[in-house]
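Handout for the seminar on molecular recognition.
Each group receives one record of this type.
Step one: identify the two inputs.
Step two: read the structure output and locate the region that could contact nicotinamide-adenine-dinucleotide.
Step three: write two sentences on what you found, then compare them with the reference statements printed after the record.
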Amino acid sequence: MAKQIKIGVVGCGYWGPNLVRNFRSLPDCNLKMICDLNEQRLAHLKPLYPEVQGTTDYAHLLNGAGLDAVVIATAVNTHYPMAKASLMAGKHTLIEKPMACSSAECQDLIAIAQKKGLVLMTGHTFLYSPAVRKIKEIVDHGDIGEIRYISARRLNLGLFQKDINVAWDLAPHDISIVLNIMGEQPETINCRGSAHINSTVEDVTTMCLSFPNQRSAIIHSSWLDPRKVREMTIVGSKRMIVYDDVAPLEKIRVYDARVERPPHYDTFAEFHFAYHYGDVYAPYVKQEEPLKTECQHFLDCIRNGATPLTDGNQGLEMVRILEASSESLKRGGSPVELASRLNGEKSVRPFPGRPARLAVPKMVASGVGGQKFSPPADPKLRIKIQVNGRQGNGQQTNGHQADAR
Ligand SMILES: NC(=O)c1ccc[n+]([C@@H]2O[C@H](COP(=O)([O-])OP(=O)(O)OC[C@H]3O[C@@H](n4cnc5c(N)ncnc54)[C@H](O)[C@@H]3O)[C@@H](O)[C@H]2O)c1
């Protein structure tokens, strides 16, 4: 067996324990050390992983454990200083989403990783989800035709964050999926929102990403909704996909439905023929925890010297969009062009109260990829459907997967 990769995880609050559980389960990984400023969090995890060392001192994790790689799951405003220290110490580094608080910080991390020949990866977990990979396959195969628009809703009574608004917290999941499906960057971003609970942090936002050829994506994010909703609709010229990540089974449904404008019509009945209603089918989606695939991918990239699917550049693209959304929020929702930022516009930290501390490559990991999707030719073979706790221990919470908030 190949030498195990020695890993340390910093941040053992809500999400870190899920990373700890997954790295701990992978045979080619030796999870050596976990770190959190909060001793209670370390004490909570100790009985679950007695062989893993715990420390409150990040410098000790970086220098005292002989690690190959570091995984950062702390608050967003600490990502940059911690990741910089990790890269400077010569460690491959996986940073949770969003990668940093500004595009300048992301660029700096990318440059350091490049200079030192280290893997830099961001935790855009949904790109490792079998459901999202299936959707990508269906879209790339041309089954739904040209994408017209995507709408996404990610709502619940949320885990309120102090340092970032709901767009920076929840929308990265939807943005990463949208960019993956659209296969290109948006031209402009509009974002509107309101702050109901903490007057300086928006808890409800609606973001619109406008793409070339009149394509768009609307992303609604809220910490103030009674129901947990994780839903995305992809409207194509031939078919439409509805992705419900909360559904235990049949997370994806493909609707053979479309509207075709008839060239001429004299009556309302004739106009109605323009609506096409066909079958609805639910393609098979493998049950596999996305975070486990993500963790394995990080190890594979370290071992093979490969570029991760969600590398530093993807982290940067995401942060550029989030920065533009914050700017648009400030301007009352007016459009902010992304191109101007790509052309060297100075990036500013969008949350000024805080101290200034401390293009998609092909995936190489095993277990990622798969058969091309095409709906069964025989309609009878399709699965038809009638048309008409704040901090965890990282144990699985949502059937087969960690509960990405
Ligand atoms: N990929 C996903 O699906 C997903 C889901 C949830 C959260 N996240 C991301 O994970 C990150 C952490 O989120 P969370 O909800 O777990 O936050 P959290 O506040 O619950 O936990 C953060 C932990 O980091 C510790 N910490 C902070 N500074 C530290 C330092 N200097 N040294 C050591 N420990 C330190 C805190 O004590 C806390 O326990 C965020 O970036 C968030 O966006 C990702």
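Reference statements: Residues 346-376, 378-390 have pLDDT under 50 and may be disordered. Residues 312-330 form the longest helix (19 residues).
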